[in-house]
Design a protein that fits this description.
The structure is a single chain. The protein is α+β, with helices and mostly antiparallel strands. The chain contains 13 helices and 15 strands. Helix content is 41%, strand content 22%. The protein has a 6-stranded mixed β-sheet, sandwiched between helices. Strand 6 and strand 7 form a beta hairpin. Helix 10 packs antiparallel against helix 11 and helix 11 packs antiparallel against helix 12.
Length: 402
Amino acid sequence: MSSNIVSSTLETPSLVRHLPTLAHLAAGASMAATGYVLSSPSLSPLHWVGPGALALIAAFSWRAGLARPREAPLRIEEAPPPSVRQTDTPAPTADTSTLTQRALGLLGQAFDQSGQAMVITDALDRVVLVNPAFEALTGRIGRQMVGQPAELLGLVPLRPSHLAGIDDALRQGTRWSGESELVGADGQTHDLWLHVSTIRDAEKRLSHHCRVFQNVEPLKEQLRQMADQARHDSLTSLPNRRAFGEYLFQAMARTRRYPKTLAIMCVDLDGFKAVNDQHGHHVGDLLLVQVARRLEACVRTTDTVCRMGGDEFMLILEGAGTSGEIQRIGQRVLCCLTESYAIEGKHLRVTPSIGAVVHEPQESDTTLVQRADAAMYAAKNAGKCRMVLDEGLGVSPDAQAA
């Protein structure tokens, strides 16, 4: 039988099934018509039946055969040849093997060419493989690190005592990320962002750890610069109003811990608006820079000079001592800022009005600054180019003039 045949049906036609009966009846009818007598001692019943009766019997038998229910056909299924049977896993071909080798080659090149330092360790955290970026970061040779415990090579151990939450993350099969440190061969400590993931075998058992390091030192330096710029005046490089509040709060805390005198001075320039209007804002900016340098030269190294904005400056004087010492500092500031300024071939002159106050116990920083502002306006109202000292008993009646 041809292999292309899937099934065949074995069935006998109805007419063929009834042929024996009709043949017998026809033979009997013929013998009766010719007068043929069977030689058997017992005569056949057909001997006594006439031709018409035999015809009726034949017709009745034919109808009975047609009325009989047809049998279900017998179907024989042939199995497909072994060469065309489907399997769950196709056999590897030469093309599949080539693609796998190419993929492995690309992965190896990506590992070597990555700019991120990468380390693969076994289940006991012993180094198995490192890439060139890790060698450059640590200053160590890769083949000398293979087989060594990661902790002895300056890597932070994979323990919750060193990396918070790493146990739970690796147990759940998720990647752990966080800030970490790495000690190089020269003993230098690097601030890095660490990613740790696990590699498991077919039975889901831990086989390797993968560490990926990202150098965040440039980013942290940039953040420090941004934070520094946010706390310093861009024109004079002095601490700004925000930094002044921080410095004053810290100075007040030290004064409460170690009893000593704390005073602040509010310095405002007289005639600065006229300089801007007559010579332009560019000249006014250069004037403010020179004022800032002169103020820094007038105070002690333990004191702080801040620019609050515009032509207003604040001085924080820690351990100023007696009110006489505060007045001497104020007089020095008056004399220094009153001298003329040489800017772009021009000789300009502005004068300061100074309000000085001494910090009182349990006084808030807001109240202290408000008192300094009030003393400065008192100096302006008294004729400008002078200092008014408030020692906590109100503004002193005799303001010092330059």
